[in-house]
Each structure stands twice: as structure tokens, then as C-alpha cells.
Sequence to fold (155 residues):
Amino acid sequence: MNEHEQRWRIYRATFDTNIFVRTVIRKDNLPNHLLSLWREGRFILILAQPIIDEVEKVLSRRKLRLKYQYTLNEVRDLVELLQQTSIVEVNTSFELCPRDSTDNIFVDCAILGRVQFLVSTDNDLIDNAELKQSLFEFGVAVTDPPNFLQEIQQE
Fold:
């Protein structure tokens, strides 16, 4: 067991796009703190390439860049950082999000990446009891950033 494994329980997590968007539009916030904890090795961030592509697409929107005053270089830096995560190939879908099928990529990534946490601020994921039950059967909990932070800070 290495030092990190001795000091902390190492969890695996998948983040929804909205978490990454918040890291760019505001610098001093919880999503940025979570990315710092990932970079320190406090948890393993599991993504799929379509998630990274969506982050880049959303953050590259001119309207969003003008509103929140960030640059394409900042978007590129984030995308390069996300390429350093553990990337799983999602070649099948469990189709657990019929209300918003675009959420399936996060759910599929969480299941195939064998994560313990799917972290989001999306109410379609957080408030869906049926989805939570289905994910529970795969060992995945849907949570928001404050609850995830609390979980990974427990020893």
C-alpha cells in the first residue's frame, strides 16, 4: 500500500460537464478545489472522450466566453488537463436516462469505469430516484460537489 492509499480511501469519480464549466467561469470555487484534489491524487477521475469533447464544445461557445470573460486558451488548457484523466471507452449504452438521453454518456462512463461517484449539479441526475436505484446496483452513487467533497475528506 502506498502513502496515499494509507492516508485516504481512494475513490473513483465521473464528473458531469457542468462541473468543468464551473471551473472555467469562476476560478475560486468548489469545482476548482475538486480538480486540485484530483491532481493531488485524492481520487481518480474517470472520463470518456465524448465527455471531454462536450466540455470543449460547450466552453468554446462564443456567447459563454463573452459572458464569463474567459479565453479559448483556458478552454484548451482544461481539455489538455482532462486528457490526463483515466479515460474509458464507452461503446455501449445502458440507456438509463430516457428523459435526457444526453446524460447517458455520464451514466455509462460511471458504470463502465467502475466509479463510486457520479458528481453533478444536474437535477435530472440528482433527483431521479429510479436512476439512483439502478446506479446503486452498479455501486455508483449520484451526488453533488459538496457531498462528494465531504465523502473524499473522510478518513
